[in-house]
Write a structure and sequence with these properties.
Blueprint lengths: L2 H15 L8 E6 L5 E6 L6 H14 L8 E3 L3 H16 L6 H18 L5 E6 L5 E6 L6 H13 L9 E3 L3 H13 L1
Parallel strand pairs: 1-3, 4-6
Antiparallel strand pairs: 1-2, 4-5
Helix pairs in contact: 3-4
Amino acid sequence: MGILRLQSIVANAKQLLKRQDVPKGYLAVYVGEVQRKRFVVPLSYLDQPVFQDLLRRSEEEFGFNHPMGGLTIPCHEEAFVHLTSQLRIFFSHKKVMGIFRLQSIVANAKQLIKRQDVPKGYLAVYVGEIQRKRFVVPLSYLDQPVFQDLLRRSEEEFGFNHPMGGLTIPCHEEAFVHLTSQLRSS
């Protein structure tokens, strides 16, 4: 994430802080799949790579405007609570904990978030030639011949293991978006 990008996030966060119900130095976020629960988190979390990853995914999925004046974070409430509790422990014991402990927390949090942000009945896939973009598609697509063809090609080219917990689909992102829009409309 570049400096300009971080400045944009911080500027948006400062705008959100103007709300009276968010204490100075904190940010309101909404978390959850169906019913969004409001959390108020310290701005210091914006410096943490795992939280920056959540912000990137938030912008991709929802943008940075929320009707109730906070950011929408795309993960399950339980995963977010676990992540923030780990960050809270890190910040309270910052001098005691070493860099290896922080790396362990970040790795565990990323795995937990990635594992839990695929709703039941859906599948995570990665699409694109150079930079892989993550899509979450319904399992019902597995019954479609055109999607089965993509899966056969995926197995031949990449196998069915992806380091981030999804399948890699061998096609251009635009072609995949077009295909899924056709499957959705049929």
